Amino acid sequence: MLTCSGQGDQRQPRAQAGPLGFLLVFALVIAATTLIVALGSGAIGGTQETLDEERAEKAMTQLDSQAALVALGNSQVQRVDLSSGRANSYDVEADAGRMTLSYTNQTNGNETTIFSERMGRIRYQTDNGDTIAYQGGGVWRSDGNGNAVMVSPPEFHYRDATLTLPLVTVGSSGTIGDRAVISNAQTTRYFPNGTKNSAYSNPLENARVEVSVTSEYYRAWGEYFKTRTDGAVEYDHPENKVTLALVTPLENTKVTSATASLSASGTFKINGAAGNLCGPDIYTNSYNSDGTDEGYCEQQSNGDTSEKGDLVYGGDVDISGGSGGGSGGDILGDVTSGGKVYVGNGGGSPDISGNISHTDGCDNCEGNTKIKGDVDQISGIDKAPAINGIIQTQVNETEQNNDNDDDGVPITDETVSYTSDTAELPAGSYYLQDITVGNKDTLTLDTTGGDIYLGVQENVALESNATIEVVGDGTASVYVLGDGGNENQLSMDSNSNITNAGDDAPQFRMFGQEDFSAQIGDGGGGSKGLAKYVGVIFAPPGTSGSGTVTLDKGTIYGGVLTGTTTIAKGNGGSIHYDRALRTQQVLTQSDAITRVTYIHASTNEIQVEDG
What we know:
Structural class: alpha/beta
Helix content: 10-25%
Shape: elongated
Strand content: 35-45%
Largest sheet: 17 strands, parallel
Number of strands: 46
Oligomer: single chain
Mean pLDDT: 86
Radius of gyration: 37 Å
């Protein structure tokens, strides 16, 4: 009995193994099936979302194409299918985003807004939070976190210095479903348009054009601007804004005569003798620093100086008060005046080796043996605009971004600091309240490592025996704003020097606004006390400027473009033109800023309704 009972106990567990195994297998099948269904549902859902977004992008691109037909006048009404396969609708918002087109007159700094318009948009929001939108004639995609890409380009075209901007705006609001009706609302032509503004005409001159876009998709707009124009693109991230800068080519930026005004009001007058540091007393002549280490005095002693020390002024030229005594003529060059020319006839009056061209007459010219060339009447001279806006921009940029704090740079509180009567600035960009070089001090501008740019808020002053010297092969450019209330934006006392090796005028360039005033020499001392300026003074007065350059025992090696130039009584001075300037664009622009000469701009409003 016990034996039988024991055998029965051993068979019972084996009898239960079958049902338990089946249950285990069944549970695994159920779990696997559940997992597969769950994963499959996610994959199907993800695929559905992807297809939904692709369909929405295609629908928006189609809308873009048909909206362009309506906006640009090729059709009055268009209907477009927006079906995405989902229940999501499209939002139409008239107030979303803004584009502003403006330009700044670089001669006077005045800014004009051509238009500033709300762009509006048509937006589709996906289930994962992305948005796909039609705005400004283009299609954009955003993830809602500031990241945006362009799907289809906007109506913005730049080619061969021509900007064509037919901005498409959405002027309605609401929601639309699977179909939309697009109709033309109105088109406004802004540029060129002399009716709106007489200045809205092509070609542009001396203008900085800016296109600004404020939008959720501003980053993508910026990338598009970079791709299509290579222009200067700046982002204002807190404002969701991007700005593209385009500029017109600068004109009349060469200095082709010893001294010029190129304005109707600019005059030239000689009241005293010609003071020179070497050689005979000559008011104007020329030399050439290109390809030689010899300065003016060496070239003069070798007989390498020549004529072409021309005078070109929009107003009167009065040389009757000068003194003669030069070799071959005291004015070695032509005299051109948009006004009247006054010539002396006495034994001490200066000779003119070249021709005289005048608009309003030439006093004491007939039969005058002092005039070696011809005397002709002309209709006028070319004008050069003021560069006020450029000066303001350059000074502002150096104030905001400069190398003042670099190691070893002797600038403290925006002022040059001198050690043992010397200071040296290496290649770079610097902002200074003023430049003052004290008695017997020397400021060295070392361009060995590259060019130097100086933005000066107030003025440049050299006391007696002070020197600014340029070394190296680069150029030094000084932009003087003249905000300090000083009588002169440039003043040089006796025996002061702005100089370099070989009297290389293109190496030093001083730029000023229309009222820039310079005094070279202080009238004291003998002939050896003359102040010496080697370089260019480029400060055209425009139409109404009052700029002046006065030589009062001073001499210039290079060239001058200003308003009125006067050689003062006594040993006044002279101007020796550097012919190396003939091939130089004295005032240049950054190659990073794209040029624009023509604008064709309009706004084209469309209405979008549920169809």
